[in-house]
Structure formats: structure tokens, C-alpha cells
Write a structure and sequence with these properties.
By secondary structure, this protein is of the alpha+beta class. The chain folds into two domains: about 160 residues, no CATH class; about 140 residues, no CATH class. The strands form three sheets. The chain has a seven-stranded antiparallel sheet. A five-stranded mixed sheet has the order 10-9-8-11-12. A hairpin with a 4-residue loop joins β9 and β10. α2 crosses α3. The longest helix has about 40 residues. The relative contact order is 0.10. InterPro entries: Cas12f1-like_TNB, RNA-guided_DNA_endo/Transpos. Keywords: DNA-binding. It holds the Pfam family Cas12f1-like_TNB.
């Protein structure tokens, strides 16, 4: 399932009606949230309580009213899981399904139900959008507003190609100095990313100090700047993760090979308990989960198998002889066979080695660690130089 973001080109009257629909939808969500118990998560029960009132008070169509109820129910569920409260709904988006939304490929436009009518709105498409939407039958979409512009996020479902069957493995080690290093020695990240991340961190610190002190207007301005900075940093991370994941999957197709990636589930909890403040900031400041998700769906779309392996001891074990080595920052040296080099490259080689024994995607629970393999639990052949 892919989401294709398309810009809309509405007329003035269409833009006005979209604005009214967004406001009515948000007002309905807020009213539903205020008039239903916070612990009530069942959308059918919520519908029985508020459906008629929502239709009468806000003028929404039957399906849009159901969409609003479903959104509130989903937010109630998320809030209970996070032990928080549901935030105020802003007039920025509306959920659509096939009954109130249609994509017209020939005319490059969409048909959507708004507050007072059904409208056909022109799309502004590029080559990427046309390719992704060609011969597709979208099942759902989200109408969004950003600034003064309107977009439609169209969900497109497609069949994944059959995965290739190969024994070759491309290992990927994730880190901080270099975001990713492959078992072929290809590196992603480095000094530029570190400098930009440190710049964002220092800017946040300065704005945080100013947001606490000063006049009311200066504090408000600092909070606004903090939000803008957060969005800018998130977009930068997202772009870099897209570039890294695309390059890795493309290389795996060229070899061809399956991808073995270390499973970092729970890494933040461990780092937050043991590491210092600066290291915690650097680990928590990069979206490794997002990178894993990008790699997963790009690999699936390309027919490249991807497996997750237990990262335990992969950075401490020599990939040449299997003995415990010495890691110092980015450097690794084996006191037994004498191999020395980049520590992340060494880890990537061990991850690739483990990837040969993993034939299913998923978490690392129950999967072998490098220590288990090299201790003979799997009778794995270990290369030892003469």
C-alpha cells in the first residue's frame, strides 16, 4: 500500500467549500470527543450515541459523519495506549473512502463529497504521480490543507513481485557517525549529517532558553520557531532515510542479494539508561525505525528479501576469525588474527553472516546471535585464516 501525494488546483468556489468542509469536520470531531466518554473506543457504540446529532448540527453527509466518528474512536484508542488525552482537532484533513471519493485518471481529477455538493477537482500531477496512479483503483484518500494549498493523499494498493531466491546477503549496520554501512563497505551519512544535527540541537537549546524568559510575545515567537525547526529537521531526516534506503535496495537488486538488517527494537530504552546525555541525544535524534520501514517497503516492492537479525556482539566479534576484538569508536582491531579496520564495516559483515541463517522477516526474538552461531549452536562454518 503506497500513498501518493497530489496537489489540488481548485476554483475559488471549490476552495471555499473545501474550507467549510474541513472546519465542519474538525468541529464535528471536537464535539464528538467532548460528548463521549474518553474511555469509549468502540466506533459502533460511539455512532449509536452521536450519529444523528452530528448529521443535524454540522451538516455532514452520512459517510463524512461516520469518518469523523471513526477518527475520534481511533484517537481515543491511541490516547489510552499512551496514557494521554485527545488533543483538539484542527481543520487540516478529512478521511475519504470509495463511496465519497473517486480518482478519474483520464481527466486527471478527483471527485469528492464536500459539505454542500459533490465536486470534481483538478489535480496537479508530475511524472512520479502519473506512474504510481496509472491503471490504479484507489480505495481511500485523505484531503489535506497545508498553508493556503490543498492536497489529496491517495492510497494505492498493488501486488508485490515475487521475491528473489538467493544465498548472497548484503549486511547493513546502523550507527550514529555513519547512519548505515554495508558489508561491501558502502557508507551513508558522515560529517555533514552530524554537523546539521548538532546545529539543530544548538538551535533548540537557544530557543528553549528564550521561550522560558522574555516577554509574552517573544516567548510565543520562540515556541513557533521551535515547531518550525522540528518540522524542518523531520523533513531532512525523512529525505536522507529515503535516499539511504533506495540506494541499499538498488544495490541489493544489482548483486542480487537479500538484505540483512540489525533489529534495533528497544535500543533507546537501553541507551537512555546507560549512556550520557550527548550520546542519548544522538541516538534518540535519528529515526532508525523510519529507515527500517522505508527499507522494508522498498525491498518488498523490488522483490528483495529483507530479514532482521540479532545485533548482539556483532560489533565486538571479528568477522575474519570469529574471536572477540577491541572496538574503539569507529575502529576495530582483532588481537587474534590481527585484522583491523572500520568497526561498522566489521559489524555489517557479521550481520551479513547471520543473515544466511534467517529465512523469515520479523523481530530478533528467537533468532541466533553472532555469539550463538560462532559458539557452534548452529554448526556454522567460520572462516579462520591460516
Amino acid at each position: 500500500m503506497l500513498t501518493v501525494r497530489c496537489k489540488l488546483s481548485p476554483t475559488d468556489s471549490q476552495a471555499e467549500e473545501m474550507e467549510d468542509t474541513l472546519k465542519a469536520f474538525a468541529d464535528a470531531c471536537n464535539w464528538i470527543n467532548q460528548n463521549t466518554p474518553a474511555k469509549l473506543r468502540n466506533k459502533v457504540r460511539i455512532q449509536g450515541i452521536v450519529y444523528q446529532d452530528v448529521r443535524a448540527k454540522f451538516g455532514l453527509s452520512a459517510n463524512l459523519a461516520i469518518r469523523a466518528i471513526n477518527r475520534v474512536a481511533s484517537n481515543h484508542k491511541t490516547a489510552m495506549k499512551d496514557h494521554s488525552s485527545v488533543k483538539n482537532f484542527e481543520p487540516t484533513s478529512i478521511d475519504y473512502d470509495t463511496r465519497i471519493f473517486a480518482f478519474r485518471e483520464k481527466d486527471e481529477e478527483i471527485s469528492v463529497t464536500l459539505l454542500r455538493s459533490r465536486q470534481r477537482i483538478k489535480l496537479v500531477l508530475g511524472d512520479y504521480q502519473r506512474t504510481r496512479l496509472k491503471d490504479s483503483k484507489p480505495t481511500s484518500a485523505t484531503l489535506c490543507k497545508k498553508g493556503s494549498e490543498y492536497y489529496i493523499n491517495i492510497q494505492v494498493k498493488s501486488e508485490a513481485p515475487e521475491q528473489i531466491h538467493v544465498d548472497t546477503v548484503l549486511g547493513v549496520d546502523l550507527g550514529i557517525t555513519d547512519i548505515a554501512v554495508t558489508s561491501e563497505g558502502q557508507k551513508f551519512g558522515g560529517k555533514t549529517i552530524k554537523l546539521i544535527k548538532n546545529h539543530y540541537a544548538s538551535m533548540r537549546a537557544v530557543l528553549q532558553q528564550k521561550a522560558v524568559k522574555g516577554t509574552r510575545s517573544s516567548r510565543r515567537r520562540c515556541r513557533e520557531l521551535q515547531q518550525r525547526l522540528s518540522g524542518k529537521e523531520a523533513r531532512y531526516q525523512r529525505q536522507i532515510n529515503h535516499e539511504i534506503s533506495k540506494a541499499i535496495v538498488t544495490r541489493a537488486q544489482e548483486i542480487p542479494a537479500k538484505i540483512a538488517l540489525e533489529d534495533l527494537t528497544g535500543i533507546r530504552e537501553g541507551v537512555n539508561q546507560k549512556a550520557g546525555k550527548n550520546h542519548r541525544r544522538r541516538v534518540n535524534g535519528w529515526a532508525f525505525y523510519q529507515l527500517k520501514e522505508f527499507l522494508s517497503y522498498k525491498a518488498l516492492a523490488a522483490g528483495v528479501p529483507l530479514v532482521l537479525v540479532d545485533p548482539a556482539y556483532t560489533s565486538q566479534t571479528c568477522h575474519q576469525c570469529g574471536e572477540h576484538g577491541i572496538r574503539n569508536g569507529k575502529s576495530f582491531k582483532c588481537p587474534v588474527c590481527g585484522w583491523s579496520g572500520d568497526a561498522d564495516f566489521n559489524g555489517a559483515k557479521n550481520i551479513a553472516f547471520l543473515g544466511r541463517y534467517v529465512d523469515r522477516p520479523g523481530g530478533s526474538e528467537g533468532l541466533p546471535s553472532i555469539k550463538a552461531v560462532l559458539s557452534g549452536l548452529l554448526k556454522a562454518p567460520v572462516f579462520r585464516p591460516e
